[in-house]
Design goal:
homotetramer, 390 residues, alpha/beta, five-stranded antiparallel sheet, four-stranded mixed sheet, 16 helices
Chain lengths: 390, 390, 390, 390
């Protein structure tokens, strides 16, 4: 067994005994879920998938569809047009709260039901099937395989979804939803009823983690900016009225669904997904949440964890016949550029007068704009002997 | 002029024309502020300070004191004891809202007034002076110089602070504040009345950015964990009811004060501070906010921006008489370890049979636990000829 | 001109100059109302109708339908069954607020939209037409003539009524509405679109004032208990978030409608109605409200005005050959019975020994139970010579 | 035993078995109340006092002080000046809710704590003792004996009253309370700690019932208008978030206190008071509330019960040598005047030509202005032979 799988297995056994919570009860399909099911998946930058537990269990995506439909809306309409209809503000309220901005009726954010319905209503489509088709196609691109809708869950959602219908009519009354209320809400019920496994979810999360490129298929699904916007909103609003404490404790943009799934995004590192049907009072899976907190801690991937790399890029100095060749690797940010400059001053001072000093920044994985500016201006001014390759 | 200062000057002139908003009016000292004042400061990892504009202007720290008093409380009591008295959840409500959890009376978070008063009340102290002394000492350590209180502002705050007194009595009624209400609220008024410049604030923010070590003085002020916790809470709750949209647009943990100051933290990169007295409807400085958004964009330092470095560490391969020496630089995370392994497989396959392959991870700025695990298990299993130096 | 009409004319001219407010704007039919229209009507116990101003102007009944549909529900189902679905508590909130009881979803009261829709949904009916038929029949009985629906207003209400649809779906989600949401909400729109004049409204109000008997037709429309319950709820909740101040200033159970109508009930005295399209911030007609306040004051009919009659019944003593005949008139309550007893003691003491004292309570308009008890027990115990005729 | 006492005893035994609820627990003096205590009192127009049960039990008046302090404020300042500082609107919220009007900070009404503190702060006084002295003097006038403060309860209230202190500071922050916050809140605690018996409370309620005249002492305590205003506000707001349902079920202006007392006012009929320490979820005494509901029903004194007397005054016709003498008794309202006119038409038609018809309205207990107008205009126009004595 590879070490990552082994580590995931270890954490899975740590969280398996957690027995609190209960599955969602509002439709039979969720109420009758096997509460013993437990599965986790991680997908890294090369698209390698690690799964443990009941990895073949399928379940409906529910609210975890929200980030992906938001991504579709942002891709189609742009950030400002989407924000005109739905905010980006955590509401401090439960998932089904009627959190609409006074006077405008704009829902607080796209991660609560009101905001998700408003977002779905923004997706163009001649009718429900057309709109749902676009949504499922986008989710499938994120997952790297064709996903489909569980029609019996959809039927149950639709037959019990009066509160969501109420929200949709309220949004219509404010002009936030402009087309058919029924189309919007039925599309929403359909997107929630898409069937997934933890593997699918981990790939979907990884696609957000790697700037919108699916690491399994290698396809760009959405732009880097859209991926950043979606994860930003997941960071502040994804875990309902536990979002702030989640950011404190776990530190990863995440989204939970009432089916017991949770996805989380470690930017540039991996996507992770968990599944276990019992929910806590916030509507988040008890065991999947615990898993995420442990993984964040063990992997050291909390968003606010210092990233030394940015400040300390890889630098190797190779003596060549011409003079020292300074090769920069990794990522060079503002802080790193300062350190590089400091090092170059020493090298320049120490180098024989005739030697040429070459700074090779062409291999950098990422070069921050501020760092470029510092390098361009200062490196070449150090001495006429210093040459910068970008 | 150095390029960073030049860039800051450019942005300063871009935001200077913004004329909306008004200074806070509830005390004469704020109402009479010179609305033309405009200053910004940035402090990087080596403690170099860049300031532009009215860098000598002094003003009271106001709500920007909250993260630092929170840091003091966390340092003294630990995270769980603090969270028992004050939450970490954005409230979706204005700064002075009475956002207390039903039944428990726990304030939503330490960045709104109710939560800040609860936090201040947690700081031990025989009396107001003793508690205020500890608070000002902590702030001074963050700033790298002795700060002091503007007594006339304090007197004004105290004489008009009935709403804050109300919050404190409410907290007392729930047992959140356990000692003297007057002591708590007067200490809070005093901490808000500490005088600062943008230079001070930028150093304070930088100390959070560099994991609790003041980059100017080199002293550790709080533990890395406390710095991470404080910036996490700033990320979700620091900009009042604009916190979510701020995280989307600017992507930096931040805190604003009613005097017109804003601090923001780019983890491992720099601390930044701005000052301009006119406030928007959320109580955040109009021009300082605009400045931060531009800087975040130009510097590419949004928290959710992909950090390629983590996935793509610096790798240099040097041929030595013994065989190839693979030197890793920068930061090695889980994603990067996968890439390194992939490269090592190629090198191992290509290397002459007798040669020894050395992987030098000892120069890495940061090695994530998951990466260590992958390297330890897999590197040495590639071939008996591969040797890992950590 | 009769003196009542003259008085009404006087008050009409007093309120005519009031120019503040604006007609409701959400549908064209209301927005285009002639704001100069002004009419008032009063109906007394004998069914005599006094009207002044634009007495022939017709307008839609809107929310003034609520008390009458409540009466129908109470008559059909009884008080407790109705209260299980809708409360009787003023909400302190505007007419269209989403004031539902936590957990149960019970609307605050039947006078706000949510509660009115819940009430309408309680009216049995095979379909919308059947239910609407019952409702219009009940309103017609209250008005003493056949009322009918303005179909163009109904069409407008229905096409813009998304907020009310939202409320209905929300009620359905809580199980407060159990049947078809569409049927409930369309029935509600239809009941709001019934056309009336101030004459109709005054008769309808008078029917409530006289315990459920229409004073014009002489028919009992609802039971005395139902009339009392309806006026009780109008007293506490009828004028939206001005209900408390209305009870203080005007002191009459009342209900306003967005078309500019107001009805008020002076129990056992008269029903009164006003019409003037401009509304204040609470959604109550500016000039009709002012009219009611003046009338209440001039007529001395504030509910909390002391009613001396109850304490001081009409008593006449007639000397007959047999002895004194004490005839009681008016209404005899607990307080009055005390006074009667006191008088009887004097008469008994003063009357010649042989004389018989007869107390004739048979002409009393109303005899309170407590008074009966006092009289029965005490009157005959005064002396064997005293005889009580009840 | 008199019949009234007997009836009260009967009802007392009916409610004695009610075992639900619990006494208030926030201070030892209330928590340790003997929950078996049960007492009721009724006071009629002549000041006769009927009490049953533990009539000597003393307890603190608590929130039942609110109507009387409101009366004092209204008497001193007038209605409009009081309303500028505190509303008259039921809030739909619990007694200690922070129900302040947005922007103005005006408390919803004087019957919730915030509004009561604002009202107390309006009472002039050089210091706490001076203000408390005026308040206790007013309460004593209502009770007809000197009341005094239980200092140990006051001390407990003061030491635990942080929530009320919070409300007072909040009111100060809005400028609703203008003087010393401490003075206002301590005065409020003192007024709540006045000791009473059900006898006292029944007399106090009766003083409101009889238009501000204490029926025991015969002294006018406040004006009739003030008594009406106070009972109006009790009618809409007196029983916290049960006020609307109380008006529906009991139909009497009332006020409850956390000590277990309830007072209710039957205008022109009697004052009634109950005492039993166990409270329901609204903070109203379980057994005292049940008692009031039964008494209202048995005595037929619901405010919205039709008062036939007003429509049907006492009329007696006595043949005199001059002609018929029509004597009117009781109360003559608008509706009654119509009936009298109708009768006079018949008498006039039937009377011999030479006879003089005298209408004697001089004995009426109350003559409504509208009735005066009708009589003056129409009676004398019937025939020159008709003469009106008013």
């Amino acid at each position: 067994m590879d070490p990552i799988t082994a580590m995931l297995e270890t954490v899975l056994e740590e969280v398996r005994p957690l027995g609190s919570g209960a599955p969602a009860a509002y439709i039979p399909e969720l109420a009758s879920a096997d509460v013993g099911l437990l599965a986790f998946g991680v997908v890294g930058p090369r698209g390698r998938v690690f799964t443990v537990g009941d990895e073949d269990a399928t379940f409906t995506i529910q609210s975890m569809s929200k980030p992906f439909v938001l991504a579709l809306a942002l891709e189609n309409l742009g950030r400002e047009e989407v924000l005109a209809r739905v905010g980006a503000e955590p509401s401090g309220e439960p998932f089904n709260a009627i959190s609409l901005e006074a006077h405008t009726g704009r829902p607080a954010n796209p991660m609560v039901n009101a905001g998700a319905i408003a977002t779905t209503a923004l997706i163009p489509g001649a009718d429900i099937d057309d709109r749902t088709g676009r949504i499922v196609a986008m989710m499938s691109a994120f997952a790297g395989r064709s996903l489909w809708i569980d029609e019996s869950v959809y039927a149950s959602e639709s037959s019990t979804g009066e509160r969501n219908r109420a929200l949709a009519h309220l949004l219509k009354s404010y002009g936030i939803v402009t087309g058919s209320v029924d189309d919007a809400v039925e599309s929403y019920f359909r997107q929630c009823s898409v069937l997934v496994t933890v593997r699918d979810l981990a790939v979907m999360a990884a696609t957000l983690a790697f700037g919108g490129v699916n690491p399994v298929t290698g396809s760009r699904v959405v732009s880097e900016r859209v991926a950043r916007d979606v994860t930003s909103i997941m960071a502040s609003c994804g875990m309902y009225d536990f979002s702030g404490e989640w950011l404190l404790r776990v530190g990863l943009p995440a989204k939970s669904g009432v089916s017991g799934g949770v996805i989380a995004v470690a930017p540039s590192q991996f996507g992770v997904a968990g599944f276990s049907p019992r929910l806590d009072v916030h509507g988040n899976s008890v065991r999947a949440s615990a898993f995420m907190e442990i993984v964040s801690d063990r992997f050291g991937i909390h968003l606010l964890e210092p990233h030394e790399s940015v400040a300390a890029p890889g630098v190797s100095v190779i003596e060549t016949p011409e003079g020292p060749l300074v090769r920069l690797g990794g990522e060079l940010g503002f802080a790193g550029a300062e350190r590089v400059l400091s090092l170059l001053r020493e090298i320049t001072a120490a180098a024989p007068h005739a030697s040429l000093i070459t700074v090779d920044a062409s291999e950098l994985a990422r070069l921050h704009p501020a760092a470029v500016m510092v390098l361009r201006t200062e490196v070449e001014s150090l001495s006429p002997r210093v040459r910068l390759l970008v």
